[in-house]
Amino acid sequence: MSSNTNTSKKTKVKNTPPDKHDLEAMSLFRYELRKFLRVSEEIANAAGITTLQYQLMLHIRGFPERRWATVGELAERLQAAPNGTAALVSRCESAGLVTRKTDQTDRRQVQVHLTAKGERCLLRLAAAHKAHYGSFGWVFGEG
């Protein structure tokens, strides 16, 4: 019941009508985000992979303090269902981009790692993406 109360309080705070400045800022954010996503699609497609495959590799390699992630962690990062993420991992595995490894301390857990091919692909695509982060300087601590 307390989580509903917290949700209600959050909703009330966020329910104030936006003013013109808010709408302009939200429009600009969506415009810049869509431009970036379109460029990202073009970069990934030119490399012969999907943007989801690129995002999966990025989240594996970009996971804090390690070079691998679990399917559950990847699902959270992708904001996707775990079964859909597992299917994406399988497609990436078939393409030679990732490999699954059983966790040595918890045999129930499976780690997803980049292969050498996946690492090369990710770094090439990430470099192309980095050039387009321009207005997102805060991503690299520049803003």
TrEMBL record:
Residues 22-143 form the HTH marR-type domain. Pfam families: MarR_2. Residues 1-20 are annotated as: Disordered. One of its GO terms (biological process) is response to stress. GO terms for molecular function: DNA-binding transcription factor activity. InterPro entries: HTH_MarR-typ, MarR/SlyA-like, WH-like_DNA-bd_sf, WH_DNA-bd_sf. This is MarR family transcriptional regulator. The lineage of its organism: Bacteria, Pseudomonadati, Pseudomonadota, Betaproteobacteria, Burkholderiales.
